[in-house]
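User: Thanks for the earlier help. One more: 4-hydroxy-3-methylbut-2-en-1-yl diphosphate synthase (flavodoxin). Can you show the sequence and predicted structure together?

Assistant: Of course, both are below.
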Amino acid sequence: MFKESPIIRRISRQIMVGNVPIGGNAPIAVQSMTNTLTTDVEATVKQIKSLEAVGADIVRVSVPTMDAAEAFKLIKQQVKVPLVADIHFDYRIALKVAEYGVDCLRINPGNIGREDRIKAVVSAARDKNIPIRIGVNGGSLEKDIQEKYTEPTAEALLESAMRHVDILDRLNFHDFKVSVKASDVFLAVGAYRLLAKQIDNPLHLGITEAGGLRSGSVKSSVGLGLLLSEGIGDTLRVSLAADPVEEIKVGFDILKSLKLRSRGINFIACPSCSRQEFDVISTVNELEQRVEDILTPMDVSIIGCIVNGPGEATVSDLGLTGSSKKSGFYLDGIRQRERFDNNHLVDQLEQRIRAKAKLLDAKNKIDIKEV
Ligand code: SF4
């Protein structure tokens, strides 16, 4: 059993997005993007706060117009989490949000146009310590690169990214991270592998337009899992056609499964099986929802019978092993005399999980945001 991740991370230079370090040995940051109209300040602030509540480290907001930039100013004043402004072409918008306290600009220098405009954006970013994210996407490669490669390839994505990187390098600006996203897992993984060898800037991972909640989560887990297991990746977004809150939850689940970040409860539970002494599936599903607010890292095993119950319980913070009518309970791997009534398992487990979280928090003086 691995208590810590055996993954050796790629060494990258560190940048700061607001107060969140990205790269170096910083925890891999999880981010999402709002899907409200940015000009609807109230709705956007509400969504950002719901993302903050589930632990988002960074939130990206689309700023396509000057009206949206004005709305961004008001939004920024009302939230704590660092904000990235997504700007595609208009350098004036970049300058405006820089003035309004943006924490990171997502803009490709090669798309800005004239040299003096690129310099103006880079100079504002430098003056205000604002990093830039270069974001290349397999679906929107430059025309000449598309013609050269005839279809999106890892090399094509790399070439596109390096054009933007070279512009920033030439301007002696190194405070940037890069993404080379694609909706195809092999394409994205190939591009990130090439990029990781080419530059030492932090990499923002993503399988773009991955799909709906289930299919997109699986695709992202496979793609990001491959990269993360090779040590590649400093921040990530799981792109789902779903509530952005789900993107944060899935992002943390991916990192949790690789032991790259520990945050909240790690449940170990039986699949469907006829030997279960209680309904494991409904118990775990209800419990997961009830303790979603707990950020303390903890392993909880909910196992339906004695075949694997004691084995899992002895390596968990809390463990339940199914038995007829009353199930066995383990704390810190030790079997307790107390047994839990199978008719009230969720209530009893929730109570114990909350008590244990309090104890662990007090003991470790955990600053959850830093875990
Ligand atoms: S531990 Fe028991 S209930 Fe769970 S999957 Fe195995 S045999 Fe089934």
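User: Great, one quick takeaway?

Assistant: The mean pLDDT is 94.
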